[in-house]
Write a structure and sequence with these properties.
This protein is an alpha/beta fold. It has a single domain, classed as Phosphoglycerate mutase-like (Rossmann fold, 3-Layer(aba) Sandwich). The protein is built from five helices and six strands; from the N terminus they run βαβαβαβαββα. α3 (about 80-85) crosses α4.
Length: about 150
């Protein structure tokens, strides 16, 4: 299984939290990462996103169909997100667009077996792969929007 964690891009401050929109910088970073992901992700990738406006705006930059999932919202927990993804038994790759510190906790949980405070940058991607034949999951890629233009 491939689990791709994509943190939402930079958002404006404000309340209510769920309505915070991307800044102009956040829109640029989401577009850059979305274009790269669209070229890189498998076509059968399942895409899940938090219902928060900043996550929806981030995933829309990808230009693919996605599912809004309440269990990916800011009030969730790593265990609920992992379960929503179907880790590790899902056959299709899954892209999750969500929030910190939740995505960092998901990454540490699936890689180390316990939640830790791992940081994923705004608009950054943390790509994890698990092959049954290998036994253990591994990090395939960690990249931020500033470096993505340099990858070919």
């Amino acid at each position: 299984m491939e689990l791709i964690l994509w943190r939402h891009a930079e958002a404006e401050p404000g309340e209510p939290d769920i309505e915070r929109a991307l800044t102009s910088k956040g829109k640029r970073h989401a577009a850059r990462m979305g274009a790269w992901l669209d070229r890189t992700l498998p076509r059968d990738c399942r895409i899940l996103t938090s219902p928060a406006k900043r996550c929806v705006q981030t995933v829309q930059a990808l230009g693919r169909r996605y599912e809004l999932r309440e269990e990916l919202g800011t009030g969730s927990n790593a265990e609920a997100i992992i379960q929503a993804c179907g880790w590790p038994g899902q056959r299709r790759p899954v892209l999750v667009v969500g929030h910190q510190p939740l995505l960092g906790e998901v990454a540490s949980s699936v890689l180390c077996g316990r939640k830790q405070d791992w940081r994923i940058r705004k608009a950054g991607v943390f790509w994890i792969e698990h092959k049954e034949s290998d036994g253990m999951p591994y990090v395939r890629l960690v990249v931020g929007p500033d470096l993505i233009g340099k990858l070919r």
